[in-house]
What does this fold into?
Amino acid sequence: MALDVLDTQTSEEQLLQVNQALSSGMFVHVRQMLHHMACADVAFLLESSPTKTRMVLWQMVDHDQQGEILEELPEDVKDSLISQMSAESLASATAGMDTDDLAYILRSLPDSVYQEVLQSMDTQDRHRVEQALSYPDDTAGSLMNTDTVAIRPDISVDVILRYLRIRGELPEATDTLYVVDKRDKLLGGVAITTLLTCDPNITIKKLMNQELEAIPVDMEDSKVSMLFERHDWVSAPVIDNDGKLLGRITIDDVVDVIREDAEHSMLSMAGMEDDVDTFGPVFKSTLRRSLWLTVNLFAALLAASVSSMFEGTLEQFATIAILMTIVPSMGGVAGNQTLALVIRGLALGHIGDSNARWLIGKELAIGFLNGLIWALLIFVVVWLWKGEVSFAILISGAMLVNLTVAGLAGAAIPLLLKKLNIDPALAGGMALTTITDVIGLFAFLGLATLVLL
Amino acid sequence: MALDVLDTQTSEEQLLQVNQALSSGMFVHVRQMLHHMACADVAFLLESSPTKTRMVLWQMVDHDQQGEILEELPEDVKDSLISQMSAESLASATAGMDTDDLAYILRSLPDSVYQEVLQSMDTQDRHRVEQALSYPDDTAGSLMNTDTVAIRPDISVDVILRYLRIRGELPEATDTLYVVDKRDKLLGGVAITTLLTCDPNITIKKLMNQELEAIPVDMEDSKVSMLFERHDWVSAPVIDNDGKLLGRITIDDVVDVIREDAEHSMLSMAGMEDDVDTFGPVFKSTLRRSLWLTVNLFAALLAASVSSMFEGTLEQFATIAILMTIVPSMGGVAGNQTLALVIRGLALGHIGDSNARWLIGKELAIGFLNGLIWALLIFVVVWLWKGEVSFAILISGAMLVNLTVAGLAGAAIPLLLKKLNIDPALAGGMALTTITDVIGLFAFLGLATLVLL
It folds into this structure.
């Protein structure tokens, strides 16, 4: 058989084919297509389908594939499928699942189903899962699998090689065997590539990497992903406070964390929760988005009440009303540029106490420079448009003030929120726009009132 | 020696210590600290430092570490350091670098330096790099390394094991040996864990995975990262059109692509380029941000010219001027929520021709539902605030129109931009806000003019 060269259109085409078959009611055909697809591809198909189609497809999936498919799905989609499954089908689907994924699913089950699933497992598995359930979400423990291969330091490579041959298959993404003492304390690691290339008579003790870095089980998951990224790890051992080997984290789970963290910043800045399901139902989606719109309504009313303070000016000069949205708009964009940069810097750990002040100073300088440039431009534009120099002076003064404030606020707000333990990606954008709107209106309408009245 | 348990504060503390030592002028001490730090940590430190400090630190880095540190840095920072280096130090720094990183650096050099660096390499390396340079940026070829270990199908595992022992060390993140025929055509792969656990007398042909998926050298890099994510690969072979093995891509390079793609969406939506340097110089930063502000100035002027069309209404009713910013503001937020969701769906490949229409319909429905909710709320608020029911009716009518349009535009704009091959993350936000501003003002001021005048 020839090698399977990947067609870049495959998944898009599969999606189309399955949808066509579904809408023509060719259910037997769909069932066959699903049967022949890789679990990861079925997961992709489910994730890309509207809620109703998703449920129909899920009914057609082979029962022994369901577990592996669930492992591949994002949380929101996983939850919606699990909630429709009976205790028995859940128990059979979860058999043989990785401990971290199994623990996630068990966490979201009602108590009765939970017990039933637990009962269906053998003692060793049940013990492992109960262990996994004891680690809080978003820590190294919740990312960890217990499928490590541990060896002793005082035996020779030759013995290990024979042991591995008897043992048979190694867990996926195994790149290191961990060396432990009698009490399971982690002493070091031996890369399996080293086992292949070294002299078989040497003992593990002489071969092992004692500098192997281990991850404490309570480390935050985003810290874990940063370490994987920085050190290009494929897997890393996880230990408890006494240095005892508990399990290992593999790069595929870390990739999910990296993706989620990065998406979190983007979606939160737009006022969306990050586990939101693109194809979820309308009412649920509407409700989930309303919080942000509520907050924005208050922000917009605050801005309107600023304008309201200058009602007299607005009554006399319609031109002022026409021009008054320009300065807040420019401030919002300039401030958001700074904000996005600082939020990314915070997420990557680049910004800390040692350089925060420098950064605020830099962004303030950029804000002032921006202010000068755009004040000049808007002066020319408004002068040409309205033909009156007083309006042009007013708006360019307000522009300088607001863009300077925008630079300062764009840098200072996320740093401040971080200090207060509030997620800067979530609250930063709204706080910033409120400030640039209020200051922008205040500066322009205030100046206008002082000068014109 | 005990195992190195990671302190989660390490890099933050290192940053602080180096900065303190620098500012007290203890340069010898700093040089020593840098000497003892891992290359990845030095890279992190450089990335987290203001431009001037970065240059001072770079002078102090051991010359034989410079290559590895450059490999770890993001493009903008890498470029700024390279531009300061002499041809000789570049040549020595790049010796032994991975082909993909080396190709990146060579691409950004002036011709004379480029030739000098090429001359300093041995024939085989030079050939490899010239090959790597021939692949366009953002394709599988540019991510690829040529450090594959290839074997023949007709020999036994035992022979391979002896060969590997003679060969010594394997390239980093090697999890599969590739099986090729005489003409380097890829036939399959053997996981190195399989080599450890199988019967040594078996031939490679019987053992190899013929279903091994290979990546065509011209595949887009974001497609490559999607495949790695979906199939949990650690490495994958890269082939040309004839199925010839060219090299391999490893997960560490793919993680960078995933991170960059996800950050790209977030930063572009805020109007920033994604290789922007958080600690770059003020003037350069100001210039790079001005494009977006220019575009926004036009958008803001367009909105102002809409208001200008209703100058008569604004002259007579200052209240209308005060309330006119609320509807565009709500439309912008609602539209951006949809936009962020659709942009993420497009980036993950979840949205295609088969479900685009469904999605637009769903978002339109959410927009209308949102419109009803917020129209009702703003009606109550404005009635209570201004005490006049006519203003309240006007603003709630405009709100319903604008939020429905926002839902439609938030979904349709990115899909349309994607069809036109324009990056939706970059252009989507500005296009959306322009539409919600213009429609919001038009609806409110238009209704007011019809009803009140």
Observations:
- The domain at 12-137 of chain A is CATH 1.25.60.10 (MgtE N-terminal fold).
